[in-house]
Write a structure and sequence with these properties.
alpha+beta, about 425 residues, 4-stranded antiparallel sheet
Length: about 425
């Protein structure tokens, strides 16, 4: 066998293979004999193929035997050529050209993809990145406490009539020229006066409405005006608890007073911002390596990534059509390329730097997890008995070790920002 490799690009190889007939004839004869043994000549017995019947068999079946033999042999010699050239495909090879006839050479060309060569930047000589860090303020604490008050609030039924902030349980009957539209009634829906579609003129129209009363309103539904008749079942007022020591003990029985609760909440907020800062650092490291590493993402890996993404979306949206699928593929391709590049880069760095997760690493992290949350120790142990969860746990540890390793070479410029900026960004994205 002779093989020759050509590089079409950094990840696509073209392999040409030639095998002489002398190396093929024994295997060909075995296949020929096997096919003959299963053949029943007209008026004869299975496998008894002689004389004129043998000649007819050769005439009628040699071409199909050649095709079957060529298919089997391509697989065999493709694997042999891969081993000789120390290549590992990441997709199924595509046959570009195939030639074979009995008593002639087997010749074929096959294209396939491999993981591309990776040329990392010289990061060990230090590299510069930027990362955001948001600073907490009194506003964050006030909002967190207000959220707690809201979650621990109670509802009280109101008899005096609806006003701004009240919750109404209503039936909403759609109207057309004042007449009810059959099949367009929503029963026992909760609305809140002064919020969403129930502001301005609608709010004024409903102000003072009482239980078992009906009123007609015109709502703006996504830019379309729709008439409804609202029938009120009940009206409720939200009772917000006082922000005092008793409230603090209700929220957290281990807290002595409001001051201690505020201290814990502030600590949690700062911890959350620190976690986001670490994510920002890690994301900047990923961006640096993806941008600076000479690497092409293999087409087959991009296709597999997008196929997986589409299948996940289909499981959530069974009615997805071809146009929606195409849109997902197009809008997600840049993300797919970046994630695949980082996957290959990460794998390469882990191998070069010999970063791995030892049994001690695993057990120590498991112990830390239980010490932080002793009440759920049993659940944690049960969770980690599942092989999939174990692998995810190991991957998380491996990721942390990788970023710890890379950070020792990073010069990080921290851009400190007020948390007000973060709230503005979140508001703009909604």
């Amino acid at each position: 066998m002779k093989s020759k490799i050509k590089n079409k690009n950094s990840f696509t190889k073209s392999l040409s293979v030639k095998v002489d007939w002398k190396d093929l004839k024994d295997d060909f004869q075995k296949l020929f004999d096997k096919m003959k043994a299963n053949y029943t000549p007209p008026g004869g017995r299975k496998g008894k193929v002689f004389g004129v019947h043998l000649e007819l068999f050769k005439k009628n079946y040699t071409t199909s035997i050649e095709a079957q033999f060529a298919e089997d042999s391509v697989s065999k010699y493709f694997q042999k050529a891969l081993q000789e050239n120390k290549l590992i495909p990441i997709n199924q090879g595509k046959i570009i050209d195939l030639k074979f006839k009995k008593e002639s050479k087997l010749e074929f060309d096959i294209e396939f993809e491999v993981k591309p060569e990776i040329k990392l930047p010289k990061y060990e000589k230090k590299f510069k990145i930027k990362a955001d860090k948001f600073l907490s303020s009194k506003k964050d604490l006030d909002l967190a406490l207000a959220d707690m008050q809201n979650r621990f609030s109670t509802m009280k039924e109101v008899e005096s009539g609806g006003k701004n902030g009240h919750y109404l349980q209503v039936d909403m009957q759609e109207l057309n020229d004042g007449a009810p539209v059959i099949g367009k009634k929503m029963e026992k829906q909760y609305i809140r006066l002064g919020f969403g579609a129930f502001t301005d003129d609608v709010m004024k129209n409903l102000k003072g409405i009482k239980k078992e009363e009906s009123r007609n309103v015109t709502l703006d539904i996504k830019g379309t005006k729709v008439d409804y008749q609202l029938y009120v079942h009940k009206i409720e007022e939200q009772i917000i608890p006082e922000l005092d020591d008793e409230f603090a003990k209700t929220v957290d029985p281990n807290t002595k007073n409001l001051k201690e609760l505020k201290s814990k909440v502030k600590e949690n907020i700062e911890s959350s911002f620190e976690t986001e800062h670490l994510k920002s650092v890690n994301n900047s490291i990923v961006d640096y390596f993806v941008q600076k590493t000479k690497l092409e993402a293999p087409d087959s890996m991009i296709e597999n990534y997008l196929n997986h993404l589409v299948e996940n979306n289909k499981s959530q949206q069974p009615t997805m059509n071809e146009s929606q699928e195409k849109e997902i593929r197009e809008s997600s391709k840049a993300m797919a390329v970046m994630n695949i590049k980082w996957y290959l880069i990460k794998e390469h760095i882990l191998n070069v730097a010999e970063i791995n997760v030892s049994n001690d690493d695993y057990e120590n992290r498991k112990k830390e997890l239980i010490e932080k949350d002793p009440q759920n120790a049993k659940s944690i142990k049960v969770f980690l008995k599942d092989s999939n969860n174990q692998q995810k746990f190991v991957d998380d540890i491996l990721n942390e070790k990788l970023f710890e390793y890379l950070k020792q070479y990073a010069i990080i410029k921290i851009d400190e920002k007020k948390s007000d900026e973060l709230r503005k960004m979140q508001g703009a994205s909604q």
